[in-house]
Amino acid sequence: MTDRFxxxxxxxxxxxxxVRIKAEWNQLIQVLSHLISNAVKYSxxxxxxxxxxxxxxxxxxxxxxxxxxxxxxxxxxxxxxxx
Length: 83
Prior knowledge:
By secondary structure, the protein is an alpha+beta fold. The protein has one helix spanning 25-41, and strands spanning 10-14, 49-56, 59-65.
């Protein structure tokens, strides 16, 4: 995955203690790859993309953030609808 995004500035913020994640590895990588791809695709060249791992109440929290325009409010309710 790092080769795919090696030309972008991706800031990685990880908590300083072990976080155990129980997940299907291939699906987790697919989701992260898709989120990072979208962040890079809709950001301007040179904009920072941040991948953050934290945890709360026994859950791992992974966030991908960027400076892009985002999904229009009118379309946000449709994010998880099948194509």
